[in-house]
Amino acid sequence: MTQPGSPAPTEDLLLAEAKAAARRAAFDRRKLAHAAAGPGRAGVLSSVLAGYRGVPLAGYIPIRTEIPPLPAMEESAAHGPVGVPIIEAAGKPLRFALWEPDCAMQTGPFGASIPATLDWMEPEILIVPLVAFDRAGNRLGYGGGFYDRTLEALRARRPVLAIGYAYAAQEAADLPLEPTDQRLDLIVTEAEVISV
After folding, report:
1. Which of 8, 41, 66, 162 is deepest in the core (most CB within 10 A)?
2. Taking Cα atoms as reference points, which of 194, 127, 123 lies closest to residue 164?
3. 11-195: which CATH architecture?
4. More confident position, 174 or 166
5. How far does Cα 119 stand from its chain's mean position?
6. Cα separation of 108 and 64, whole Å?
C-alpha cells in the first residue's frame, strides 16, 4: 500500500510484487504435492519422451521440491545425448553439459549438482522446471530469467521443444507475465499431458 506523499508504484514494481506473491503461493502448493507424491512419477514424462528417442535432450537435477525427471532422463540417455543446465553467470543463458546416469557430479552455482566434467551439448528438447504454469503454456520460474533467455537463444537457431514438468497442483489460473517470458510447448504433470 502506498503511503500518503510517496510516489505511486511503477508498473514494473507492481509486476514484481505480483510475481513474488504468485511464487509464494505456488511454492506452498508444490511443497504439499511433493510431500504427497510417491515413486513412479516419471511414467507420463517417459511416454512423451519415447517419441523423441535419440534427439538431444536437456533435463535437470531436481532441487528442493521440484518434481524429479531423473527416471525419464535415464531412459533417454540409453538412446541419445542428455544434458543438464549450467549457470555461468547472472543475466546469461544457460549452457548444457552432457550427463549420464551415475556420472561423477559436483556442486555448481546455486547448490545444484552438475557433472564433474563439463562436455558441452546443445539440446533440441528441454525439460523445464518451474514454480507455476497455466494451460496456455506460460510458466513462472524462480525469477532469474535463465530459461527465458535460453529458450529465446535456442529458438533463434532452430525449433526447440520446451516441456514444462510439474506437479498438477502447480497449475495457476492467472499468472503475472511480461513480454520476455518464453512459452512452453507442452506441460507434463504426474497426471496428464497439456498441449498448448
Report:
1. 162
2. 127
3. 3-Layer(aba) Sandwich (3.40)
4. 166
5. 21
6. 15
pTM beyond 0.90: no
Q: How many Å is the maximal CA-CA distance in the chain?
A: 64
Q: Which of 30-34, 52-56, 165-169 has the lowest mean pLDDT?
A: 30-34
Structural domain boundaries in the chain: 11-195
Mean pLDDT, residues 148-175: 95
| CA-to-CA dists, residue 2 to 6, 13, 14, 171, angstroms | 7, 12, 11, 31
- What pLDDT sits at residue 78? 96
The three cell numbers of residue 120 are 558441452
Least Cα distance to 51 among 36, 65, 72 occurs for 72
Read off the C-alpha cell for 27.
Answer: 511454492
- Do residues 92 and 149 make contact, with C-beta atoms less than 8 angstroms apart? yes
The pLDDT score that the predictor gives to residue 174 is 87
